[in-house]
Model the fold of this input.
Amino acid sequence: MRTRASLALLLLLAPCAAAQAPPVARVVPRIDTLHDEVRQDDYFWLREKTNPEVRAYLEAENAYTAAGMKHTEALQEQLYREILGRIKETDLTVPYRRDGFWYYTRTEQGKSYPIFCRKRGTLDAPEEVILDQNALAEGKKFHALGGFDVSPDARLLLYLEDTTAFREYTLYVKDLVTGRLTDSIAGVWNGTAWADDNRTFFYMTADSAKRGNTVWRHAIGAPRAQDVKVFQEDNVLNNVSVFRSRSGKYVFIPADGFTSSEWRVIPTANPAAEPRVIAPRRASVEYSVEHGNGFFLLYTNDEARNFRITRLAESDLGSATGRWTDWLPHRDSVFVEGVDAFKGYVVVSERSGGLRRLRVTDLATNRSHYVTFPEVAYGVFPANNPEFDTRTFRFSYSSLVTPSSVYDYDLRDRTRVLKKRQEIPSGYDGSRYEVRRLMAPARDGIQVPVSVLLQRGTPLDGSRPLLLYAYGSYGATIEPTFNSAVLSLVDRGFIYAIAHIRGGQELGRQWYDDGKMMNKMNTFRDYIDVAEDLVRRRYTSPDRLVANGGSAGGLLMGAVANMRPDLLRAVVADVPFVDVINTMLDASLPLTAQEWEQWGNPHTAEQYAYMRQYSPYDNVEARAYPWILVTTSFNDSQVMYWEPAKWVAKLRSKKTDSHPLYFKINLAGGHGGSSGRYDRMRETAFRYAFMLDAVGLAPRPDPTP
Done:
């Protein structure tokens, strides 16, 4: 019956796509009652992933989108060539030193994946290819590596492989001397750590909702049935991970939720030891731990909204008399984001005025200084710094006009050396562009930072199209960093802006707290207020403004499209989290239970009522909407494909306008789309072609049939 229905649907939809009529999903009402509200979900059946009718509907949507975008195919190809031209296809990363080897990755023209290499002793030594992802990915539609961990004696490699796009990992052990695989474990989760004996390692598994919850100890060559369960976290609000400290002395096992933490530690010299709790879990207290030279540093929000750093002597761990003492006190105007401890130095990443800086402390003198940066808006990130006994700290830096640059900073001499700057083979002149940092007033008086990239000399007369990107969730800070692809829009007259809205941590922890749970509406209102301010300043006009966000940023897109459709010309919502209520009611889905502390739990009446007012799927109404492009992946495990599918189906049934509504489904990809770099560039080109088409900068479709 299902097969016949599927064939019938295909026959029905195929001619419609050719004639530019959109697909229409079958209505199958599902009625529930929650908190005395009757809820009708007409498209719940689209969750049936193995139902041929579902697959047929998604393929019909793809066909309709391809037909609607056919007139932009030449533009898509041009955009792809431009984006590709700004990438150095044959390239290598800056090598980093670890345990007597220099490690790096390189890419080759025409190959989609990196090649992992190393050299022994010096960079003049012969190259060893330790893993070629292109060879592993051959013949596969999707390929991702979830981990890469070399043993302390540098002989063995642990790596995790996913060929499903659904984060289904198999762990492999490769002998780097013989090149042979010596062990494998299927059904694992991302996270590994070696013990000092070079034959024992720790790995993870996840529960049915893909929550990392269990750490195991394995001896190479032993059957999996003999593996020892080291730790299991049964509280569904907490995620577990495992890793080896930079000092090499401990294996850390964090169990973190969105509002509390509890870390355990095992000496790498004694992997069979019972894990010891570093600090017991307390409600609303979060922390993370770094091991230094004879001490632990704990980075925590305990009595410190913007976080502080405390210190405990290593010998006092577990002692009844051991005390954590302030190492870096709380400061109201400075947000501590992270800490990297080395044998003689500590580097703290902190944020002031919305921008990150690096605070360096010499442990011998206890004197500190800052590494600062000159541009008005930028991003700086600690890079791979695996060596403990070093005075060199590597970081990457870029801005909207400065290509990604890798620096080695001498922690003692306070000097920096540029090791590599991203090359733009097709040519790049940063002086043609200008970066601005604006503060947009929100309706409650808060000032929202906005980073802007535009061509120098751009007139502010409201005529320019503008792409406004934002995320605004999970405390994720969106840094204004270099994006070579977006130059294809800016060079065609677009202005590119990033709204640093509440829900991120650009202005500290309060900025995050004011954009989640019962404050989540601030995220959406901030975006609207930023857009209105950009229109008021004449950077753009509503008929020229394009909105973009992905995942939780896709939730933002859906909410804003419902709240202020008149403010936007077009919306591009990538893998959007739009069916908020139904997803958060289903604890069997990945991420749901943990994120009751992020969005709320709709089983609670008050929280349901609050979430109900912004959930995009629940607020679609009969009204005119902007141009909309929605993307998803059939095997996405973080935002299931049916969320955007249901949203699109409901939008089609309700919207009163004739604007394009396209739904593009990657039938082989995951949450980040395709795994290969060339395919990802084509996906970007497709999005940009849609944006250009929406503002009249693409060739018009041929009116003749």
Observations:
- The two ends are 36 Å apart (CA to CA).
- The longest strand covers residues 181-194.
- Confidence is low (pLDDT under 50) at residues 1-18.
- The longest helix spans residues 677-694.
